[in-house]
Amino acid sequence: MKWFEAARTRLRLLFARQAAESRMNQEFRLHVDLEAEKLMRENGLAPDEARRLALVAFGGLAKHAEALRDGHGLAWFRGFSLDLWLAVRMIARYPWLTLLSSVAMAFGIAATVVAFEMQTQVLDPSLPLDQGARIVGLRYWDAVLNRPVLATSHDFTSWRALTSVGDLSAASVFLRNLITDDDQAEVVDVAAMTASAFRMVRVLPLLGRTLLETDENPGAPPVVVISYDIWKRRFSGDPGVIGRTVQLGSDRRIVAGVMPEDFAFPATHHIWIPLRIPASAPASADEPGLMVFGRLAPDASREQAQAEMLAIGQRPPHGRQDKNAQLRPQLVPYTWLFVDPREFQLGLALGNIFVVMLLVVVSANVALLMFARATTRQTEIAVRNALGASRTRIVAQLFVEGLVVAGVAVGVGLVAARAGMRSLLATIEADAGRPLPFWAGDSLTQGTMIYAGLLTILSAAVIGVLPAVKSTGRGLEATLRRSTGAGGGFTFSGIWTAVIASQIAATLTFPAAAFLFHRWVAAGQTRDVGFPASTYLSARLALDRESTREASMDTTEQPFRTRLRKTYAELERRVTAAAEVTGLTFADRLPGTLHSRWRIEVDRDDARGATFVGHPVSVATVALNYFDVVGAPVLVGRAFTTADVESAADTAIVNQSFVNKVLAGGNPIGRRIRRVRVDGPGNTSPWLEIVGLVRDLGMLEEHAGLYLPVTPDAAPVLRIVMGVRGAPASFAPRFRAIASTVEPALQIHELMPVDEAGASLWLESQYLSRVLTVLSAIALLLSLTAMYSVVSFTVARRTHEIGVCMALGAERRRILWTILRRPLAQVGVGVLVGSFLVTVTFVGLFDSMPTALEAASIAAYAIFMIGVCLLGCLAPARRALRIEPASALKSEY
Amino acid sequence: VSSRPPVDGLRGSLDLLILKTLSLEAMHGWGISQRVQRLSSGEFAMNQGSLYPALQRLENTGLITSDWGVTDNNRQARYYRLTAAGRRALDKEVESWKKFAAALEAVLRTT
């Protein structure tokens, strides 16, 4: 255990500097005292004389103390603190360089940290509950279809025998309308949950009580526990809320308790009702899946619990899902019951790789700046080397400098990452149109902080060690010899030429791409949908249909469809009776949003070849009165009639782009089309006859589109569109009130003007566009600075050469050309590559070549870059040309 | 000019002497220097202070270890003692020193 003893001693000494010094002094003092006493005792010397001789015999206190300190490991510490001090001094000398480097790297680090944190939150988030890591989910894995399968009530009953999982609980989740005394209906996330779940999460109610086992008994009074948010909003925080009744879907329930703020277990839920599990009934085939979860017993591990689940065994096959399935019980992290990490794994991994590369690119830029600065310190480095500092020592010093810059960057980066997380989560939430699960938060986990620490070291290595190795790599003695003459003789060639050229290409591409992307997003948001969308109100409607154990709803399709049709008819009657409404209609997709995409073929179309896979078109199913309500009457042919939906006559109406693109401008009426199924040869799609033509109405993806007639109960998704006089948003509360009186179980989602529904599609792109803009601004600033300093540095290094040329009588113009040739070539190559990339981006996004104005903007931007570069060359070149040849030469000797 | 061999100039021989001294009993710095002098009958001149860097080196490599203790006349002192690794290192050093001395003597005996 030699190494262990040694390591222990070194560690002790390293962290106990003071203690080590005091121990040394004490030992030396004792030694000298004992020696002096011996001399007095044996030689009869006077105390002073004895002490003097003892000191002589000891041989130089200071020398031995120094030897001891070096051996303590403190030498390394002192070296580090010296480097740290030098680094701080350098930073003070080059504040702008430091600021720029730190800001650039901070941004890179922030992006990397956010990506890493997102990965953690999706793959293995920590639940913000007491010992949340011990809460696990129980489900099945279908080995045939390779997908998770939720448990049934039968499984839940048999899993209750598990000893390694305590407080086993189950929940069934769905949406319901919540209607309180104000008669306003609001769609809420409901969890029908066993009472044990409240025990398991270890959260006490704020008011009243949580659910109890007795609530699950048949015949028990129907109760509900509400969230803090609902209590505050719908009951104005009334302390006497317990005992009041609310309507949930078609049931009335008594409020039994209020949960504390931020409690949204199992995920995004605000209403909790008892889950009734029949004691021993076998699960029915159509029973909806149950979320089953529990808390690992105090001494049990996940592996033990998994083994115990396997021992209990597979469930007997039942139900339609299980016919061919090979189900294996599986214990998973709790959140996997709600989020399947497989869906995100690839995206997250790619995102992480991208941001780490971004950070490396940013660091490489900073490294270029640092290298330019290091070369100006070539003489200093050479002198240090000559005085005995090893190459490792010098590299270490520059590494510490890098570490300080990276450290500042990480500090700023972490703050920025926190803000970035917050805005990213808000965007995801807004984009999804529903709250995020309760475990998603903007705080950074411990793992992420460690990751940030590792990034600091990586960045410091790139910005400190790379330039250091390069600048200490060759001929330091030669540098020292030359340092009295014309400087270090350093040039940026070879690999640096490639770095500078690609740097310029990136600088040109990045902001241009960001600009174009921004324009694309803006264009998408303000796209003309062919009718005044801002005067129409839209909403997605849904009717409660899931059968819960609490309220027995329709379990078969036909009664549900009848109820939906009747509900819609009644809603239409009452809404259109309102004076401010001009009409009500519906479609499965709203104008200005993405549509379903089909590939179709046209009957008797000669253009088809063997490889023809169909024309891509957008498809929407619409109500019979759709075109009338949106004010886009049929231009040619006829509108849909009742006969089109009743007799299943296969008819379609197409838009103008369809005629232009698919039929090459020919008359569409009477032509037949059908869907091409690309998944197999069994093409059985029926032919559809085109009966009418309308103008383009905001079909995204493919502008060529067709409309199919549908009744409200058969529509895949029911999105209603109401024409409103005045501001459509002002009719929204009235509409909610009408809807809740028509049918309490009718859910209203995404109630907003039609143009906003289209715009919400762009939220993520908008966010990305903002991030890209900031990234580009930083990249631009950094690149221009790096380019300027590198170019001006290269030229400044050639002052001596210029002097010689002048002395030999060369023309100024010729000299200038010699100087500018290389930097201009570097910039030229960069601009060419960059312009090519910009054009590619342009064609990729817009499917067209840039217009003259856009091309001119790109060219102007490229010229601006060349200008910055020339400025970098000219200032030192002019200085060099002004020097008297004699004085330029004099410095050589 | 002293004719005695400079012990502290020969790294290795000093370490060997320290390890040997500590193999007998735990000892503080001054005690070690006295014992070396006594065992060598005053033949080894030693700059006493140089003992401490050697002690530290041996401690860093785990051959010896140290703790605070109290001397006969009741003073706080740092006591060094051999570790198991130190004992093994001492055996090896002694062995190699003997070989070296024998070889040296064989060379010197040649006339």
Task: Give a short summary of the structure.
The complex is a heterodimer of chains A (893) and B (111). With 893 residues, chain A is α+β, with helices and mostly antiparallel strands. Helix content of chain A is 52%, strand content 16%.
What's the alpha carbon Rg of chain B, rounded to whole Å?
A: 15 Å
The SS-based structural class of chain B is: alpha+beta
In total, the number of strands of chain A is 24
Strand-residue proportion of chain B: 5-15%
* Averaged pLDDT of chain B: 82
The outline of chain A comes out as flat
Spatial order of the strands in the main sheet of chain B? Answer: 1-3-2
Work out the radius of gyration of chain A.
Answer: 38 Å
Shape of chain B: globular
Biggest pleated-sheet summary of chain B: 3 strands, antiparallel
Please identify the structural class of chain A as seen in this structure.
Answer: alpha+beta
Task: Please explain how this structure is put together.
The complex is a heterodimer of chains A (893) and B (111). Chain A is of the alpha+beta class. Helices cover 52% and strands 16% of the residues of chain A. In chain A, the strands form 4 sheets. Chain A has a 6-stranded mixed β-barrel with strand order 3-4-9-6-8-7. In chain A, strands 15-16-22-18-20-19 form a 6-stranded mixed β-barrel. In chain A, strands 13-23-12-24 form a 4-stranded antiparallel beta sheet. In chain A, α11 packs parallel to α14 (446-472) and α13 (391-432) runs antiparallel to α14 (446-472). Chain A is flat and about 125 Å long. Mean pLDDT of chain A is 79; it is low at 479-491 and 547-555. Chain B is of the alpha+beta class and 111 residues long. Chain B has 4 helices and 3 strands. In chain B, strands 1-3-2 form a 3-stranded antiparallel beta sheet. Mean pLDDT of chain B is 82; it is low at 1-9. The A-B interface holds A 1-6, 9-10, 23-24, 26-28, 30-31, 33-35, 38, 57-61, 63-64, 67-68, 71-72 and B 28-30, 33-34, 47-50, 52-53, 56-57, 59-63, 65, 71, 75-78, 83-85.
